[in-house]
Amino acid sequence: MTPQMLFSLSGPVALLGWLALALSPLAPRVAQVVAGSVVPLVLAVAYAGLILAFWSGAEGGFGSLADVALLFGNPWLLLAGWLHYLCFDLFVGAWIVRRARAEGVAHGFVLPCLALTFLFGPVGYLAFGALRLIQSQHKG
Amino acid sequence: MSTFPLTHDDSRIWRDAPAYAGLALFLALAMAPTLAAMAVDPRQFQGESIWLKPLKFHIALAIYLGTLAFYARWMPEAARATRFWRWHVRAVVFAVLAEAVWIGGAASVGTASHFNTALPWSAIYPVMGLLATVLTSAALVMGLAIRKADLPAGFRLSLVTGLVLTFVLTLVTAGTMSGFPSHHIGVPMTGAVVPILGWSREVGDLRVAHFFATHALHALPLVGWLMADRTAPVWAAAVLYTALVTGLFAQALAGFPVI
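ok -> structure tokens follow
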């Protein structure tokens, strides 16, 4: 097994979760189970396995930017870092869909936020924050 | 023969022994990342994946705690309400978690957890021995509490002897083993082992006696369950089982493989 093989595998797994969120109006419960629990948990198990296996032998750390660069110089830990993104971004995506449903935000507005979260994590979170603020002004 | 009826209410373990049931489930769940690590980690220790040992301990401890959680229903209510019981459970839970972290930690850095003579592991080893005694005492405490339980005499005796013998026999076998430099008595040449269990088929392996010692809490209650009202068969089984463990222990100490 190589880091590249697991990387290639992780993409479709995460996409499955994003697809469920995009289509969530059709099956909100299923979307939450898939994107809010199952897929992030699978990614979390893989991440935890990588950390158990490769953390102790790694150079670098969290102390300085140079240390972080050294850490990610190890392809296995680079892969772990990537899974960390995939896992938490999807989790935030599922949260956005939950909040949007609870607050009555139209799915058409949610979709761009999900796309941004998928591509650039925090940017999508920021966009959804702006969307909620605007929505609350309209209601008030 | 009259078997003792078992209740089929599985949720009882969460009421009777929530800490043991929860910890058993936690150890079982923690096998998922351990298996993931095993799949990606090429490192080996003494010819097998470094993650095999943590995996074995997770399975063994989950079975042990799951069994205790199941047996807790046969303790008198009053025994589970005491302050001693609550603190003892906390100590056992701490000991189990410390043991799991120690064995997993040693695996993650690719070194031995047991029989490690290098610092800092050699300094921790005696502490882990103490904690292992604490976690094994869970069986003793439960066994002694069940002495006063309102159960058919044979079944009750089988629970008490099984649990107490698990403690005593494990303490003797595992305690002696920890005093040796390895669980092997002799030096294996070909590496032939019993499948799954991993016991040497060439030299004495002290883990065999440890295994049977610790499983007294399964073997003896089986006898008492089948013959719930009679104590004589249970006493006979307890003597025979002790003899079996002693024999296996002597066999390994003499340097002979189990089969």
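DSSP finds six helices and no strands in chain A.
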